[in-house]
UniProtKB/TrEMBL annotation:
Metal-binding recorded as keyword: yes
Organism of origin: Tropicibacter oceani
Family membership noted in the UniProt record: Belongs to the metallo-dependent hydrolases superfamily. NagA family.
Gene3D superfamilies reported for this sequence: Metal-dependent hydrolases, Urease, subunit C, domain 1
Domain Amidohydrolase-related: 52-366
Enzymatic class: hydrolase
NCBIfam families hit by this protein: nagA
Gene name of this polypeptide: nagA
Catalytic activity, EC: 3.5.1.25
Keywords attached to this entry: Carbohydrate metabolism, Hydrolase, Metal-binding, Plasmid
InterPro entries, alphabetized: Amidohydro-rel (IPR006680), GlcNAc_6-P_deAcase (IPR003764), Metal-dep_hydrolase_composite (IPR011059), Metal_Hydrolase (IPR032466)
GO molecular function: N-acetylglucosamine-6-phosphate deacetylase activity
Protein name stated in the entry: N-acetylglucosamine-6-phosphate deacetylase
Length: 376
């Protein structure tokens, strides 16, 4: 296999931003990050004019792309379309996400992900089931007619799916399930995330103590932080272990709120970026349907007819731009929030989110103005 040296761009390995270094690839594997003087003679050299070489983005909340919604077409062919659309914006590892739907559609989604992985559809790391065991009071764009309590059959289906898939994330509201149910899911390998919830702080803490590890789209569709009732937002920020996804489009969360959250978060649990992307990513469509309801694309927002936000019109490079330009983060920190940090949540990250010797060479080039991300 041909060795390649990529030079002329900064290199982010998932943790550190290296300047003046060279990324050396050998076939589909990272060989080294080294100085230009250490290159062997005769190696093929590709030069860049600035920008950043980095791992492909890791997105744990992808509802659609390329004009396709996973809810509308839970099939391996639809997942291939969604994967291509996200690869075009630099995402090389993602969890297809099924928004609250029927038991039959949930079963079809689990089967579709298994088939797509078996067929070698690139980028699919598992499945994220966002619902249906949520709180009606914080349903957001989820269809209230499809939200329901968790039955024994649901729990058994989730445990079986966790055994069949490399990664399974499930978003649920802690007030709608028991800590014992959460503990059993966590022991089975399910990544339990709390969201679409009006829970109290004690309810959230009980869920986290039982094994929940994450919070879905921090600040959105959840009980807020107030002086005497910290809610799910307060629980997420106070917990040293819980991680939290964040939609950084400056629509779902104000940059000032993002800065406050980053300042408050402590411990190994960290905030990471998600796109919450819908069918619009990689497409020029101006509307689509979700559970039979129209979703409109207007001025960078996706909304139901009544104005309720319904996912995000966002790519990972756009989220990085918001984090660096409006929130004020160093590029290195923003890139980690879109690569290594979400990858750490996964049971089987499969080399996603890092560029280290021996890792798969899922590298991308991010342009200096953050407007383009190209696979290498």
């Amino acid at each position: 296999m041909t060795r390649r040296a990529l030079i002329g761009a900064d290199i982010f390995d998932g943790q550190t931003l290296h300047r003046g270094k060279v990324l050396v690839l050998h076939g589909g594997t990272v060989l080294d990050i080294t100085g230009p003087r250490n290159l062997p003679t005769g190696i093929a050299v590709h030069r860049f004019d600035g920008g950043t070489l980095m791992p492909g983005f890791v997105d744990l909340q992808v509802n659609g792309g390329g004009g396709v919604m996973f809810n509308d077409d839970p099939s391996a062919s639809a997942l291939a379309t969604i994967a291509r659309a996200h690869a075009g914006t630099g995402t090389q590892g993602f969890l297809p996400t099924l928004i609250t739907d029927t038991p039959q559609r949930t079963a079809a989604a689990i089967e579709a992900v298994q088939q797509a992985i078996a067929q070698g559809v690139p980028g699919i790391l598992g499945l994220h089931l966002e619902g249906p065991h949520l709180a009606q009071a914080r349903k957001g764009a989820h269809d209230p007619a499809l939200i329901r309590p968790m039955q024994a059959s649901d729990e058994a289906q989730l445990i079986a799916a966790a055994q069949a898939l490399p990664n399974l994330m499930v978003t649920l509201a802690p007030e709608t399930v028991t800590p014992e149910q959460i503990a059993r899911l966590a022991r089975a390998g399910v990544i339990v995330s709390l969201g679409h919830s009006d829970c109290t702080l004690p309810q959230a803490q009980a869920a986290l103590d039982a094994g929940a590890r994450c919070v879905t789209h921090l600040f959105n569709a959840m009980s807020q932080l107030t002086p005497r009732q910290p809610g799910l937002v307060g629980a997420a920020l106070d917990s040293g272990q819980a991680s939290a996804g964040l939609i950084a489009d400056a629509v779902h969360v104000h940059p000032a709120s993002i800065r406050a959250a980053l300042a408050a978060k402590r411990g190994p649990g960290a905030i990471f970026l998600v796109t919450d992307a819908m069918a619009t990513l990689g497409s020029d469509i101006t509307e689509f349907t979700l559970n039979g309801r129209r979703v409109l694309r207007r001025d960078g927002r996706l909304t139901l007819a009544d104005g309720t936000l319904a996912g995000a019109d966002l790519t990972m490079p756009q989220a990085i731009a918001v984090m660096t330009r409006q929130v004020g983060l160093p590029l290195e920190q923003a890139l980690a929030m879109a690569t290594a940090i979400p990858a750490r949540l996964l049971r089987q990250p499969q080399g996603a989110g890092v560029l280290t010797p021996g890792a798969p060479a899922g590298a991308i080039w991010l342009s200096p103005d953050l407007s383009q991300a190209q696979a290498l």
